[in-house]
Specification:
By secondary structure, this protein is of the alpha/beta class. It has 9 helices and 15 strands. It has helices spanning about 10-20, 50-55, 70-80, 100-110, 120-135, 175, 180-190, 280-295, 305-320, and strands at about 5, 25-30, 45-50, 60-65, 85-90, 110-115, 140-145, 190-200, 210-220, 225-230, 235-245, 245-250, 255-260, 265-270, 325.
């Protein structure tokens, strides 16, 4: 297989290294040249700065790892050319051209996987299996907390210039840390209404939202609260779900999954494999993408899934701006 990677920031470099670890060496890079990372490891690879020139290499799959605001500019022509896509989350910073991408993919025969890698987390996989089995009843309510100190993310660069901190690039904590909107949808179901407040304290002196708290109501009547921030040290990220007959929790710092069954009356703990680390999520996602390209699997996070997560995130920002409850059906 031949791969095209757009972007060589931290996530683009991770994909570049993971493809090689999985035995794939035919890789073309599409770069703007604005990345602050060293580029010595690219010396033996083709690097293009023009999309048409990059597509002329006829890649089988393309990984889009550029700032959020540029995703669709790259995805639409690639999909129209029949290239299978792994698009980093979120799909975009706007819903404006998502249907155009959908049409291009249908015309070109491109399959699209959205890069919500937490769907490959073993704790969440166990959590979904427990819910789907019906052993502890249906979900009633959930809480997600995710806080990480933005200046610690890429210490080699000025965090204020990173895409996560710039509105013109699609940044802000609600969009950048939108994983919970996807995995809550995956675990519980479709979200119907969103109510959000964003913090007004400008601790980091950036133009976008640094913290947000959202309340979601699902189609099945369940509720969830989602707290996101760029401020917490040390980082914390966890989810807990209360079901009719039990309780589930996954801590993404320790990677432990825990389940309490009301009938059995005891708490069960499931530790991760001894060698588990965060990159295992990305490796599993890349292996899945390869299987999608090969026709051995369908995307486990489709463009429709990614669009719903984006709808939730944009509804949250709209709710905060307008100080109102947003109904996604409208």
């Amino acid at each position: 297989m031949k791969f095209l990677i757009a972007g060589f920031g931290s996530i683009g470099r991770r994909h570049f290294r993971n493809l090689q670890e999985l035995g794939h060496k035919e890789i073309v890079l599409l770069r703007s040249g604005r990345s602050t990372l060293p580029t010595e490891e690219l010396q033996d690879f083709i690097v293009e700065q023009d999309m048409d020139a990059a597509l002329a290499h006829r890649p089988d799959g393309m990984i889009i790892a550029t700032p959020t605001a540029s995703h669709l500019d790259l995805a639409i022509p690639a999909a129209a050319a029949g290239v299978h896509l792994l698009i980093e989350k979120p799909v975009s910073h706007s819903l404006e051209r998502v249907r155009e991408l959908e049409a291009a993919a249908k015309k070109g025969g491109s399959k699209i996987l959205i890069g919500f890698q937490y769907r490959f987390h073993p704790g969440l996989i166990q959590m979904k299996a427990a819910i789907d089995s019906g052993a502890i009843g249906k979900p009633i309510q959930a809480r997600v907390h995710w806080g990480e100190y933005l200046p610690d993310w890429h210490p080699w660069e000025d965090y204020k210039q990173s895409y996560s901190a710039r509105g013109d690039l699609g940044g802000g904590v609600t969009l950048t840390l939108s994983h919970p909107f996807d995995y809550l949808h995956w675990l519980i179901g479709k979200v119907m209404t969103v109510s959000t407040m964003v913090g007004e304290n400008r601790v980091l002196d950036i133009e976008v939202d640094e913290q947000s708290q959202s309340l979601l109501r699902f189609e099945n009547g369940a509720l969830a609260s989602v707290q996101l921030d760029y401020l917490q040290r040390p980082a914390a990220h966890w989810i807990e779900i209360q079901c009719e007959q039990g309780y589930l929790v996954c801590d993404f710092q320790t990677n432990y999954f825990k389940m309490f069954n009301n009938v059995e009356g005891k708490l069960k703990e499931f530790p991760p494999d001894n060698d588990f680390d965060r990159n295992h999520l990305f490796l599993a996602q890349t292996e899945h993408f390869i299987n999608v390209i090969d026709g051995k699997a369908e995307p486990n996070c489709t463009l429709e899934d990614g669009t719903h997560a984006l709808e939730i995130a944009l509804a949250a920002l709209n709710s905060a701006e307008q100080n109102k409850l947003v109904n996604l059906a409208e």
